[in-house]
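Objective 1.3, modelling of assemblies. Example input:
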Amino acid sequence: MRGLMQDSPLTIDTIFRHAEQHYGDVPIVTNGPKGVTRSTYGEWADRTRRLGGVLDTLGISADGRVGTFGWNSQRHLELYFAVPCTGRVLHTLNIRLFPEQLTYIANHAEDEVVFVDRSVFGLFWPLVDAMTTVRHVVVMEDGGDAELPDDPRISDYETLLAAASPVEFDVRDEGLAASMCYTSGTTGNPKGVVYSHRSTVLHTMAALSPNAFGLSVRDVAMPVVPMFHANAWGIAQAAPAAGAALVFPGPMMQPENLAKLIVDEGVTFTAGVPTIWQGMLPFLAGTPHKLREIGCGGSAVPKALSEAYREQVGIPILQAWGMTETSPVASSGVLPRRLEDADDDTKATERARAGIPLFGVEARIVDADTLEPQAWDDTATGELQVRGPWCAKEYYNPDAGAVLSTDDGWMKTGDVAAMDSYGSIRIADRTKDLIKSGGEWISSVDLENAIMSHPKVAEAAVVGIPHPKWDERPLACVVVKPGETLTEEEVLQHLKPLVAKWWMPEAVEFIDEVPKTSVGKFSKKDLRAKFAEYELKS
Amino acid sequence: MRGLMQDSPLTIDTIFRHAEQHYGDVPIVTNGPKGVTRSTYGEWADRTRRLGGVLDTLGISADGRVGTFGWNSQRHLELYFAVPCTGRVLHTLNIRLFPEQLTYIANHAEDEVVFVDRSVFGLFWPLVDAMTTVRHVVVMEDGGDAELPDDPRISDYETLLAAASPVEFDVRDEGLAASMCYTSGTTGNPKGVVYSHRSTVLHTMAALSPNAFGLSVRDVAMPVVPMFHANAWGIAQAAPAAGAALVFPGPMMQPENLAKLIVDEGVTFTAGVPTIWQGMLPFLAGTPHKLREIGCGGSAVPKALSEAYREQVGIPILQAWGMTETSPVASSGVLPRRLEDADDDTKATERARAGIPLFGVEARIVDADTLEPQAWDDTATGELQVRGPWCAKEYYNPDAGAVLSTDDGWMKTGDVAAMDSYGSIRIADRTKDLIKSGGEWISSVDLENAIMSHPKVAEAAVVGIPHPKWDERPLACVVVKPGETLTEEEVLQHLKPLVAKWWMPEAVEFIDEVPKTSVGKFSKKDLRAKFAEYELKS
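Predicted structure (tokens):
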């Protein structure tokens, strides 16, 4: 027997129309070097419909990929909607990627146009000729002062918008691609995750629930998490769906600017990586504010940081866990009912967990090879695997071997976790080969390959070392070839042209040999143990 | 280009597993004449899996309809999940329906089994022989004392459960029917709405959002709205999905018992029809409680009632609007941001609106015949029409003419509404033919037909008159045949065997003729105007 309900598709234009029709007076604020720009969902909606017309004018294909390269801003939000609501696919480029990665992913996604903030135009423009499918570069004036070359590919966002006609949005197929985000952390080439309209709408609804972010018409939401990260953790869609006011930091990402914005604009909800909150603590401590919740993810939230916020800012940090492949929010460390009257330390320990999957996501821990389930006793560990409508099934045209799904249909996260008897997740060990610095992945394997390209290096292994500001920074462990000598300075000089500046190892240690596992692989676990007490010079 | 996300279906077993895995320690409490019974989601989950086994044991078909006839209780919640999670279809029978309606809908839905609370067994059993498809009657001991006949069709819930084995739940098709609810208010026979797994899960997620009920692990939710009303307004699914504790009133529906339960169990969220809150006000006023929100729907919430709650209980009532055909929650009168600092009266007026559609539902007002859109100026009115994944497309095997959808795919609500410039709905006039008494529909047309069956009656029209306790009560306007005489008492005596006791007109007025519209239909509008100041003897 079938249900007899309407066949209404879950498409992003329903979010758009909801905000357009019901929250026209709700503010959207974007910060910039000349102060804040004030707008509303009403103006945003009108501009977004005209941006749809711009995409037509530029001749972007019916399902063409539209790249963005910019900060968090109202214009970025216009792109977040105009692109998928006209059937095209939003591709947010991470402005912090190494140039070769950027050109790789723009070519892999076949971006036809890239919308670039003027303040980061200088990072982007040198790559444009290597991006073989990019026919247009649209510059968004955000107060940046980059010189703009005289090039027919370049046009101005506001000029295009002023000349464009508004379009109707009516996507009728929830399975269509809506947006793409590449995950650059793992070994090999960056991998593209393709979100559907359906997955995005469901992720939005999950983000709205109070066990996650709980956004409502009463909120003023400020996503500090960059909009070039997956769906800006859902806030970019959840705020319009809830009628929450939005505050965008623009390029003004310095902690003091962010803190001032929170206070001045009456921000009630914000979210970002631990590094951000670390930096902002001195500016928020003891300052009157209206914050009700601070969402934090991307890396594990140190218990001490959350406790410092509870004590000095008045609210603990809410940890959320997820990854690009999970849209990204998959679980939250919301305090369970049974611990409501527990002591502060017990609560803080609980809050430091990745926590309970959001309703809609199911999680398990298994032996990664045999898929044997592991006990939920908070001691046994296994690969964390998830399933649900906003978990990715496969990568976009992946390299051979980049398999995301198990044979029985669960998504392999690559994280190693324990789960307690309530199914609360504790990430025990991140994917062996990754280092997370300031919320961004660094591939240790790529770094190792670069180091090992030095003629005097026999082998090299890179591990993440805890860092007070960046959460983790890479430590290079280098074995010099017999009879040779090598200094830290020589290794770093060798790397300079090969990797992004922020990938540069924080230190180089020379060792006799890299410890190996029984099958001859580098044993990162042993290396991490060896350097567990390592003190970085910072 | 397609999205590359998992094909995870939106099925009710995902709600079940979420509660089972993560909220095993969260309390479920059911009240009864001998006091409260305490349980947990863990116990509930185990019992629900075994109830799935009971359905197998009873030989219920793969998509068989399973009727329920009872109060709000943990056992009813077990049925809410065991039935759809085994692929069967839950059919909640409204215990307040007139016997002929009950047998009609049980036969129309082809219920194979009915689960009956012992306290209402006496209402049900006389009908069982007329329910031609019902093979089993399972009695749930709720402290009632109805005599149970010696009949092979009757079995005991707990006995069956104790003997049953738990079953796996794995519904893979979100389009399957999950449950049915009949709407008995409109003219003609009751009409069945068939919810799908998909519509139920999406309605659940919408109910979780803070612009609706905002349930979380921090809540203790008490649905006063009967579980034989549509999905108990989503709370029956939203609480398990959120990990909110649940408190069920059982048969103890007296205002003083409900108020005591709210205080004793620390209820934070509750919902029901206006009549309930009217009755409970004296018991809640000035009493310490933990309520954060009171949801109200089914009838318009009188502004005075909401204000009395704000003043005497400390929180205003949140009005929600919807109907059986919308799962039911479709909009909420949540206060918009721009009125946060408005005066109390302005806020109260705004809260009295049906409000803004929940994200996922779209609303419009149109000329019911031409579908011409009406202005959103809060003055123009039109038929309210809605669309969205939890709005019904059609009725189940309807009588000829019972059409729910417009040609362009919107659902006709039958309500007449105005919308302001923010798209906030104000119900201007309920469907002409309906009277809502204590949250239940009375069909004026059916009543009229019954009255007009009296030999001395020329014609009769019934309209709803405001009533302080029941919101509305029927007033019968009777035209006596020329040369005849008739008394109120004779009319009521005539009706007694024909309609349910609570359908009986509150008063009978004798008039010279029923005012007619230009096309010769009864003009209820004119009649309502004529009796606008009518004072019921109550």
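Chain B touches chain A through 76 residues (CB under 8 Å).
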